[in-house]
Amino acid sequence: MNPSFENFDTCPNNLDQVHFVQPWIGYATPDYFNSCGTLAPYNMWGYQVARTGTGYVGLAAYAYYYNGSCANCREYISGQLWDTLKRNVTYCVEFYASLSNCSFWAVNQLGVYLSQNPVVYDNQGDTLSKIPQVVLDTSFILLDTSSWVKISGTYTASGGEKFLMLGNFHADNETDTISNLGICIVAYYYIDDVSVYELQECNAGEDVSICYKDSITLGTTAAANVLYEWIPTSGLSNASVANPLASPDTSTVYILKQTECDAVLFDTVRVIVNRDCHTAPSIMVPTVVTSSQAFFIRGLESNSQLDIYDLRGRLIFASDDYQNDFIFSHEEQAFYIAVLTRPDGEQWCEKVFVVTE
Predict the structure, then answer these.
(1) Strand-pair partners of 292
(2) What does the pLDDT read at residue 123?
(3) Which is more confidently placed, 288 or 69?
(4) CB-CB contact of 77 with 212 (8 Å)
């Protein structure tokens, strides 16, 4: 709830005001910043612009004063999910962090702890003795003071989790640091855009049989924050989308590699090409194309003839065995007439509008 700290009941005017952004709760004295007032983008810890909207929070992930006081001192924020997590379902947990300019230290420990109930934090200011399910790569010390750095990981739920806490759950002797960066004796991080969402299922589609030179759509609907890669790329309209059009010359097994959060999933689909099948189940001639896009006819059969004319009747393209490879790259934006002659002599005539890019 309120993942980027945009909804608040009072514009912050001092430190230790995370309680202004319900349902977030501060443990010890984390801070809320918003450009509605004077605490953003400049504040006592440095300068930062919110990654989303106008609000973000800040917390001390490490503090150790020279006189020995405040050893293992920590600040945390706690939030609530919209719904409880489902048992054995895998989720992506992520947030964005940026080191404040004033910080003397930078650390390698920032993480998220998920629980069924709110955490009771009796020793305010001390390190919380919980094991976070998602943490910053511990080989990486977060030093960036200008950009927001994404910290993410996957978590397979036990079931019933509805609360999260964010901060450094490791003691001083378990935290790697870099020092002498700024003048404030603390490793202070700004936090924005906290999210927990279910991973998308990797689905390449059902095995299918098509006629030679016909095509079929693979995969599924694209989702945000997901990278798609198809192997091999031959016969595909685009190997980097969720649902490419496949028109292989021979029977092919395609592998879908899907990357989301830090999880890599795979699925396969077999496209069987029937070369004894010469009648496409359906033919679709596009009516609008761009000047950089191939004129792709769905259901195109081998030895199909294509002639394209401008509206003055001039022939601008002709092929006795069209291969879905013509591009209107040298033509102006206008209407054209495409005449497709199938191997059995049947003709299709379609008016096509070309949009120049």
Answers:
(1) none
(2) 65
(3) 288
(4) no
